[in-house]
Amino acid sequence: MLPLCLRPGRLLAAPPLRLPAPRGAGAAAAGGEPTRDPGTTRAEQAHKVVASYKPSTFDKKILLWTGRFKTEEEIPSRIPPEMLDRARNKARVKACYIMIGLSIVACFAVIASAKKAAARHESLTSWNLAKKAKWRREAALAAESKTK
Question: What is the pLDDT along the chain (148 residues), one digit of tens a residue?
């Protein structure tokens, strides 16, 4: 457990933590300088975009639909995962807007059809009563045919 120090102006403060350095390809070397591939300068390494994801045909369609690229030939063979994440989020928002618009259109269509049905004096109650009367007649005919 870390000791808590009380200092004026601060309620509680803990001493700073020293985390171990991460291991692997982008980690800092023992001298504090980031490791890099041989043959690349520091500027190239600093501005290098890691494009480690190969887009599928569906991903390419998403990139085109969201306007990130104009044609499928412009899409590189490897893209950064962040680019695809942004395109997917934009596509998700567009799809939601389309669904909202279709829902509003469907609401107006239902309202219009309900007004036409009301003008013809049709309702769910009258449909149910007619259906049940038909079932009763069919049941009576079936009962008559069994007794004969």
Answer: 555 555 555 555 555 667 666 665 444 445 555 555 565 555 545 555 567 889 999 999 999 999 999 999 999 999 999 999 999 999 999 999 999 999 999 999 999 999 999 899 888 898 899 999 999 999 999 998 888 7
Closest CA to 124 of 109, 137, 113, 135: 113
Beta bridge pairs of residue 13: 5
Backbone phi and psi for residue 76, each to the nearest 5 degrees, phi listed first: -70, 165
pTM reported for the whole predicted model: 0.51
Range of the domain at 127: 43-143
Q: Would you say residue 15 lies in a domain?
A: no
The number of distinct structural domains making up the chain is 1
Amino acid 7 reads R
